[in-house]
Amino acid sequence: MGWFPEAERWSTWLSRPVTRHIFYGVVIGFLLSHTPTSFTRYLKPRKRRETETFDSRPIELRSDEIVSGVTGLIGNTPLVRINSLSDALGVEILGKAEFLNPGGSVKDRVALQMIEDAERNGLLRPYTGSRIFEGTVGSTGISIATIAKARGYDATIIMPDDVAEEKVKALLSLGAEIERVRPASIIDKKQYVNLARQRASRFAQDDPVNSSLPHNHTLYSTPSSVVVTTTSNVDLDQNNWQNDEDFLTKPRGYFADQFENRSNFDAHFKGTGPEIWRQTSGRVEAFVSGAGTGGTVAGTGQYLRSMNPEVIIAISDPDGSGLYNKVKYGVMYDRREAEGTKRRHQVDTVVEGIGINRMTNNIELALPVIDDAFRITDEEAVAMSRYLVKHDGLFLGSSSACNLMACVKLVKKKGWKEGQNVVTILCDSGNRHYSKFWNDDYLRNADISINLSLVENILQ
Ligand SMILES: Cc1ncc(COP(=O)(O)O)c(C=O)c1O
Asked: Residues near 98 by Cβ (< 8 Å), separated by ≥ 6?
């Protein structure tokens, strides 16, 4: 034995031909399976995950499973790379394909969560003749009508009379009762959301089957201003209704109230946000979304921020919406409201579904995480929609086009040139918008030009 007995033992062991071959084989195999790229890949996510608690796992694909009914088709939507924009910018622009939900929009998630939460809280019970009421510009109504049928409810949708006709046709085909009203300010009792609340309150009274019954109650529950009406004798103030069989089996009117209902936020906090995180393996630099009720940006934004404090959350805000000024200057305001130059009703834009001029619970939940806002003109939204059809074969609705225009503006503003992931929501398909946004005659009459160079120039 010399001075280093261990080293001597190793060299004797290695000098045997069989063990030497095995040793070199293992070393070479290890080195080949760990190329410099795989090392970088391994280290990159690890650096990001220092503060994470999320356990990354594969995306759940539906292709190899049988789902239960129409609600089983909701969520788990793919994230699609927008090739034309990503290639031009060098930055990955990824769209969450929400138009693939069975009701055709991101609102399926919200409708399902609102109905399931109401059932869980004992406010709604299937097959009791109960009716769900909602005030909506259409997408949420279609989602509610779809799920209502699947779960044994009826639906009444109150909507402004200037929304695209195809949404009305979809609602009628789904067996919903529709009331179309003149667009009005939220302080007006006849505004569509206010009317939906009133109709829900009066449901049990007006219902011909139950009108002979003596009692009618309205139950307000927080945090969402849920209205539930019933003809039961139960004393709602005594809070004993959850065990009262009479109450539980009676038809009820339920006001879903997506603007104020916390379930809206939860649908995205529990669904859209985690899905995006999984699909990008936690590598998302920015999330861009429009806000109609604010539920999408609030829930998804808060989830992503909780996973990565540095993720940028940005709003795409159409013409006529006050949210842009709220984010930039703290005041919910749009100059068209003030100057009386409004060309259209509600939010003054041809874009449907996003833009808002008042504070709601869900907007309140969104504001703390919103870093930036981008004003998207009607011309820019139209140009982006046509550009995407021309280069990608993607036929999208107006709010999706706004979102993608805002993604491009964000990337340009940040000076990003390579490797970042910017995620947005592709809320619905162009086939919900034939009569307005995708109708060239309509646009011409509304003085909105179709000019693809608005996109081409910014991409250069
Ligand atoms: C087509 C479309 N896109 C986007 C949104 C906005 O989503 P949120 O209400 O979560 O802000 C809506 C809302 O109704 C919509 O109908």
From this structure: 77, 105, 106, 109, 425, 426, 427, 428
pTM above 0.85, yes or no: no
Atom of ligand 1 nearest to the CA of 397: 1
How many Å from the N-terminal Cα to the C-terminal Cα in the chain? Answer: 74
User: pLDDT confidence of 123, banded at 50, 70, 90?
Assistant: confident
Residue 265 C-alpha to ligand 1 middle, in angstroms? 12
In the numeric block, which tokens belong to residue 293? Answer: 């009720």
Return the ligand 1 atom nearest residue 352 CA.
1
Mean pLDDT of the chain: 83
- Which atom of ligand 1 is the closest one to the Cα of 432? 1
Closest to 92 measured CA to CA, from 411, 453, 307: 411
Q: Separation of 365 CA from ligand 1 center, angstroms?
A: 16
**How do the domains of the chain map onto residue ranges?**
70-101+269-459, 107-255
Q: Which distant-in-sequence residues (6+ apart) come within 8 Å of 42 by Cβ?
A: none
**pLDDT tens digit sequence for 53-81:** 334 445 565 667 788 999 999 999 999 99
pLDDT in tens, 189-209: 888 899 999 998 888 665 444
Is domain 107-255 in CATH 3.40.50.1100, yes or no?
yes
| pLDDT score for 348 | 73
Instruction: Determine whether domain 70-101+269-459 maps to CATH 3.40.50.1100.
Output: yes
Q: Kindly list the protein residues whose Cβ atom lies closer than 6 A to any atom of ligand 1.
A: 105, 107, 137, 139-140, 290-296, 353-354, 397, 399, 427-428
Q: Which atom of ligand 1 is nearest to the CA of 427?
A: 3
According to the model, what pLDDT value does residue 252 have?
A: 86
